[in-house]
Design goal:
Layout lengths: L1 E6 L5 H10 L5 E8 L6 H8 L2 E4 L2 H6 L2 H9 L2 E4 L8 H6 L4 E5 L13 H10 L4 E8 L9 E8 L6 H27 L1
Parallel strand pairs: 1-2, 1-4, 2-3, 4-5
Antiparallel strand pairs: 5-6, 6-7
Bound molecules: 5-O-phosphono-beta-D-ribofuranosylamine.
Length: 189
């Protein structure tokens, strides 16, 4: 059984969806959730789901090797689900093809620093895009630039608001993210 550690900075609805999906998987299970945000709703979800969750700070992530050493012992795959910090290269290098992120737009559009959460959906709306979607990709040291694994799109109309765009994107995320994680684990496990 491969062990998945999820990183999440906020609500954690994707994290919850992934935990539930892998509860009935034969190949992998979510063993731990890590968050950089003590107020993140993901902690409440983990309590309800009975998944171990820990808070970490920038020092232990970037400066010393606390998080790296934890992952080396505890993780086979790492999933970023709404995680907002750049992953340091020592962690990227330790987990080649084993760190997966989801971005709520069709990269390379609407990626990079500052392009997260509602900022993305507001920019999509402002630019009057006819479609948006999700991108699931491997993680490298640059924001949103790792090799793309999977994309799915959804049509937009002029009546869509940043909020309805967010809902459409979340639907795609819930539908596809766990399955794509499972495929990657099967391929690289
Ligand atoms: C998702 O839209 C994800 O793509 C983005 O941040 C959002 C996180 O939502 N990176 P949640 O915390 O999983 O509810």
């Amino acid at each position: 059984m491969k062990r998945i550690v999820i990183f999440a900075s906020g609500s954690g609805s994707n994290a919850e969806n992934i935990v539930n999906y892998f509860n009935s998987s034969q190949i992998a299970t979510v063993t731990h959730v890590l968050s950089n945000n003590e107020h993140a709703k993901v902690f409440d979800r983990c309590e309800r789901l009975q998944i171990e969750a820990s808070l970490f700070d920038k020092e232990s992530f970037v400066k010393d090797d606390t998080v790296l050493n934890f992952l080396l012992v505890e993780a086979d795959f790492i999933v970023l689900a709404g995680f907002l910090w750049r992953v340091p290269s020592k962690i990227v290098e330790a987990f080649p093809n084993k760190i997966i992120n989801i971005h709520p737009a069709l990269l390379p559009k609407y990626g990079g620093k500052g392009m997260y959460g509602m900022n993305v959906h507001k920019a999509v709306k402002e630019n009057k895009e006819h479609e948006t979607g999700i991108t699931i990709h491997y993680v490298n040291e640059n924001y949103d630039e790792g090799a793309i694994i999977f994309q799915a799109s959804t049509a937009l109309s002029e009546n869509d608001t940043p909020e309805t765009i967010a809902t459409k994107v979340h639907e795609l995320e819930y539908k596809h993210f766990p399955e794509i994680i499972e495929q990657v684990i099967t391929k690289h496990g």
